[in-house]
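Lecture notes, part 5. Sequence design as translation. It can be helpful to think of inverse folding as translation between two languages: the language of shapes and the language of residues. The source text, in structure tokens, appears below.
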């Protein structure tokens, strides 16, 4: 009896000792963290000090996540710091959270990221809470700027994201946000660390639009007329709804022809008035899988609309450089054609020849992009040839293209072309068959 009783007591004591040792190590780690960020245990920290501590915690989470190959930081580290900050004075930690968020988001914006880019990154590598918290951080960042000093692309993206100050000034944004989402203080602060860790992991990008406060009113806004856009959207909606590939491509080509006619009319006006439409840039984020093949499709659309495209494979987005109205056309046509390409790919039966589905579908999309590029290029060339004075337009178009090329080379001086490997002849043939055949050659490379 004694032996059994002693054995039971020892069995209970061992986990207790391990638990106490773990708590002691955690207390020591926390003390080392506070010391590292310059916060003394003998006084309450200020909001500014806690803001610095929150950034430091997010940086630890980001670095730990990088070592474990996590794209959003280390969840365990974030949770530990969420609990740690939840034990601090609420008013100071809430104000500190605001300071930390504004410090990090300002740095990210200076590094070329825009509101929709951050939202896309959060959707892919975070969760709903991270996305909504960052949306509020963006809204708070933009709040002090006069509307006429905010770039129009920024304003459009803020509207699409719903980035607006919904909270009252009677309490902190963090406390109202936590209440809105029924989160405890610890859960809310864990989300804060996760969100800021994600931002700290974002690479430096090219600054393609002026930051809030730096935009200047434009005397001429060269965007596609809404009536033209309405007709193009109607054609593309029909293309997306039809079950006949040939009809879909014909409708898409008609949309391209309409956009080209509009662009030529604009070029004629610019020539007569000496108005110069300076190149701009936008980003299009792609859904996985097959992002390289989808990027090739956008590249084909960009080429047909006097623009240039570059693909950042690690993050899955394409940057388009071109005149503003041409960028409108590229965005509209690319979105529709990606829908059509995906639907056509899914509808094709994969042959039972040993080719796996992924290899077949990637080859299908590359072939589809190539043929669509030919079709759009043919529509553009035919529209120019049928214009009233093509000999007058061609030098102007060449000048516009040179301006786009110069802007592209300035933004991306080290870009390079790369090929896409195709390992399924069946998928290639199926992709070509799914697009209406044209008789023009198409580039199969994509700058990256």
């Amino acid at each position: 009896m004694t032996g059994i009783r002693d054995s039971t007591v020892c069995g209970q004591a061992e986990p207790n000792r391990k638990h106490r040792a773990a708590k002691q190590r955690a207390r020591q780690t926390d003390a080392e963290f506070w010391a590292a960020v310059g916060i003394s245990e003998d006084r309450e920290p200020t909001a500014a000090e806690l803001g610095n501590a929150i950034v430091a915690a997010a940086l630890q989470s980001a670095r730990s996540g990088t070592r474990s190959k996590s794209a959003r930081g280390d969840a365990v580290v974030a949770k530990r710091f969420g609990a740690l900050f939840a034990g601090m004075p609420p008013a100071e930690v809430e104000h500190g959270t605001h300071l930390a968020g504004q410090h990090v988001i300002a740095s990210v914006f200076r590094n070329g990221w825009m509101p929709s880019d951050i939202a896309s990154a959060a959707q892919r590598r975070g969760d709903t809470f991270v996305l909504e918290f960052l949306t509020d951080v963006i809204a708070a960042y933009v709040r002090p700027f006069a509307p006429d000093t905010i770039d129009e692309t920024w304003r459009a993206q803020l509207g699409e994201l719903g980035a607006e100050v919904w909270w009252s000034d009677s309490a902190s944004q963090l406390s109202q946000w936590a209440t809105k989402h029924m989160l405890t203080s610890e859960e809310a602060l864990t989300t804060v660390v996760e969100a800021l860790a994600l931002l700290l992991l974002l690479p430096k990008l090219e600054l393609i639009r002026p930051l809030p406060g730096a935009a200047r009113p434009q005397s001429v806004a060269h965007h596609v007329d809404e009536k033209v856009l309405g007709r193009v959207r109607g054609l593309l909606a029909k293309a997306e709804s039809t079950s006949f590939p040939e009809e879909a491509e014909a409708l898409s080509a008609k949309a391209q022809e309409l956009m080209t006619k509009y662009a030529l009319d604009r070029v004629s006006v610019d020539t007569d008035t000496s108005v110069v439409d300076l190149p701009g840039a936008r980003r299009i984020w792609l859904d996985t899988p097959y992002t390289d093949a989808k990027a090739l499709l956008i590249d084909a659309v960009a080429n047909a609309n006097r623009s240039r495209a570059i693909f950042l494979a690690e993050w899955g987005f394409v940057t388009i450089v071109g005149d503003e109205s041409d960028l409108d056309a590229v965005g509209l046509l690319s979105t529709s054609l990606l829908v059509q390409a995906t639907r056509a790919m899914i509808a094709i039966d994969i042959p039972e020849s040993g080719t796996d589905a992924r290899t077949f579908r990637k080859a299908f999309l590359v072939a589809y992009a190539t043929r669509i590029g030919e079709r759009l290029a043919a529509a553009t060339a035919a529209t120019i040839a049928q214009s009233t004075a093509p000999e007058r337009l061609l030098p102007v178009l060449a000048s516009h293209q040179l301006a786009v090329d110069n802007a592209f080379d300035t933004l991306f001086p080290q870009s390079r072309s790369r090929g896409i490997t195709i390992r399924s002849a069946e998928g290639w043939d199926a992709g070509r068959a799914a697009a209406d055949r044209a008789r023009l050659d198409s580039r199969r490379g994509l700058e990256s």
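The translated text above is only one of many valid answers, since several sequences can fold into similar shapes. Strands lie at 280-285, 308-312, 317-322, 417-418, 446-447.
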